[in-house]
Design brief:
Strand content: 5-15%
Strand order of the largest sheet: 6-9-10-3-11-12
Number of helices: 20
Radius of gyration: 35 Å
Largest sheet: 6 strands, mixed
Number of domains: 2
Distance between the termini: 71 Å
Shape: elongated
Number of strands: 12
CATH topology of the largest domain: ABC transporter transmembrane region fold
CATH superfamily of the largest domain: ABC transporter type 1, transmembrane domain
Structural class: alpha/beta
Helix content: 55-70%
């Protein structure tokens, strides 16, 4: 059990210290009652069983059963309050983990499957709830009961208690050995469960491709293999649990009973050895061993919960952005952009951008063209701070972009992708993006500006039309126009167009181009394009090849250079024989 993980878990308990203290009170009260019950039974057996039971004996018997009822009530209240704390803690963990995910760079999502992230937030955090709600309360209750019972047994008969004590190191040794053998299996079981979620998520997202290419049987086979691995590790855990938990503990418990009965049999003539004492000692022996058995039974859950907590905290504690010289309240004012000798590698070995330098003044439009893999999108990824770079400088209005807060930077930049993402909700909410300062009039104005109001108004519910997941009921052109309206409504100073017309048909492209032209007016614009016809009016076009700028100039200048740009233009225009 890692101390750092345990320390973080305990810190969550302090958030709900009053509920935790209340739960501890009920557990302590339950311990006192459980300790008192055998003593009451001993007194009743020694003083009333062998003689006429009078009024005092009946009252004692009623009190004895009342203690049982009170024990049940206190046990329930202790479990209830601990469960309340547990689910409050899990809610906080899920909320904080989800908030962390929103701030992580794209590099994390490139390396981590979506199913694994979902598994950590759902399955792993639920395992933590099980620990707080069941295991943690059980451990505390077991500790209280163990200590109280041991102290009471020593007071009743310390000689007999000493005969039983040698069993305790054996039990603790069994627990240590169980932990040693089960830890790896528990980790692998959780890991395989995460793999199951990854495969399930991937299959659902790619179902069209799976069915189109008749890959159903292969995916079922792969899922079965992962599922079988999970079952194998789970079964191996069960085997260890079956050996070291209740069966082994029960054998030790029976041996302890044998020691006690032998001791009583050899010393029954002693005056202090009454039937009540024998009964009380047997009950206390149960209470001494039962907490240890319960601890060992819950140890598997504790192992799982600690591994799960470690996985959740590993995600929660990620810090992808650490501004070097953060300037408070710094905002983008003009939108002048400059790249100075920027180089970048995704894997730390092979540079995808090599010594990139360019500048664009406020209100101008520049474009990047080049073959696939030339580095066009990487420039946008760095400018949006989806990825961190450590060589060169990127400046906005003369200030390093790492000195802007994430909020200020993103507020100044409007990004339009080739495959726009629409969220579940309405057309209105997708254009507003839940910015409370935007009114319906602002939404309609933005949609009208980009020529989207026409088709939106013809929808059955207009701007209140329901948008399903990813906007699947809209055409690609309609989704793009809604994305344009969303960007215009945000009023960015800088506009990024990442192949915004790549997936649009020729007829729709005319509407898109008119909208783009209006969007670019008065804004600094960086465009990435495969279709050279869409960026011919750019102030400057940069041609990229293998991460380097090899040509630059406006459309006419590049054609006159008779280089790579001219060849690309001729290929797309059908002029090359």
């Amino acid at each position: 059990m890692k101390k750092s993980v345990l320390k973080q878990l305990i810190s969550y308990l302090f958030r709900y210290k009053w509920w935790t203290l209340l739960a501890l009170f009920f557990i302590l009260l339950t311990t006192v009652i459980r300790t008192a019950i055998p003593l009451v039974a001993r007194y009743y057996i020694d003083h009333f069983v062998s003689q006429q039971v009078g009024q005092s004996g009946l009252l004692l018997l009623v009190g004895y059963y009342f203690l049982f009822l009170l024990r049940v009530v206190c046990t329930y209240l202790g479990s209830y309050t601990f469960s309340r704390v547990a689910y409050s803690i899990v809610r906080d963990m899920r909320q904080e983990t989800f908030a962390t995910i929103q701030s992580l760079g794209m590099a994390y999502f490139d390396k981590t499957p979506a199913g694994s992230i979902v598994s950590r937030i759902t399955n792993d955090s639920q395992a933590v709830a099980d620990m707080f709600g069941t295991v943690f309360s059980s451990f505390i209750a077991s500790f209280f009961i163990f200590v109280a019972t041991l102290v009471t047994m020593l007071q009743l008969n310390w000689q007999l208690t000493l005969f039983i004590l040698p069993f305790l190191p054996i039990i603790w040794g069994s627990i240590w050995l169980y932990r040693k053998l089960s830890n790896h299996l528990v980790m692998m079981t959780r890991s395989k469960l995460s793999d199951i979620n990854v495969k399930l998520s991937e299959s659902i997202e790619g179902m069209r491709i799976i069915q189109a290419f008749r890959q159903e049987e292969r995916l079922v086979g792969e899922f079965e293999a992962i599922n079988q691995e999970h079952l194998s590790y789970a079964n191996r855990s069960v085997n260890i649990n079956s050996l070291f938990l209740r069966p082994a503990m029960s054998v030790l418990k029976v041996l302890a009973y044998a020691v006690m009965l032998t001791f009583f049999g050899l010393n029954w003539q002693m005056a202090s050895f009454t039937a009540g004492l024998m009964y009380a000692f047997i009950q206390y022996s149960n209470q001494l061993f039962d907490p240890l058995i319960e601890v060992t039974q819950n140890f598997a859950t504790l192992q799982t919960s600690m591994v799960s907590a470690e996985r959740v905290f590993a995600m929660m504690d990620r810090k992808d952005y650490e501004p070097r010289q953060a300037i408070s309240n710094q905002e983008v004012t003009l939108g002048n952009i400059e790249f100075k000798n920027v180089s970048f590698s995704y894997d730390g070995e092979t540079d995808v951008l090599k010594d990139i330098s360019f500048s664009v003044n406020s209100g101008e439009t520049i474009a990047f063209v080049g073959h696939t893999g030339s580095g066009k999108s990487s420039i946008i990824n760095l400018f949006m701070r989806f990825y961190e770079f450590d060589r060169g400088h990127i400046l906005i209005d003369g200030v390093d972009i790492r000195n802007y807060s994430q909020s200020a930077l993103r507020q100044a930049i409007g990004l339009v992708l080739q495959d726009p993402f629409l969220f579940h909700g309405t057309v209105d909410s997708n254009i507003k993006m839940y910015q409370e300062n935007l009114t319906r009039e602002d939404v309609v104005a933005a949609a009208t500006f980009v020529d989207a109001d026409g088709f939106i108004s013809r929808l059955p519910n207009g701007y209140d039309q329901t948008v399903t997941e990813r906007g699947s009921t809209f055409s690609s052109g309609q989704r793009q126009l809604i994305a344009f309206a969303r960007t215009v409504a945000a009023k960015p100073k800088i506009l990024i167009l990442d192949e915004a017309t790549a997936n649009i048909d020729s007829e729709t492209e005319e509407v898109i181009q008119r909208s783009l032209k209006k969007m670019r007016q008065g804004r600094t614009t960086i465009a990435i394009a495969h279709r050279l016809s869409t960026i011919q009016d750019a102030d400057c076009i940069y041609v990229l090849e293998k991460g380097r700028i090899i040509e630059s100039g406006n459309h006419d200048q590049l054609l006159s250079q008779k280089g790579t740009y001219q060849k690309m233009y001729q290929l797309q225009s059908g002029m090359l024989n």
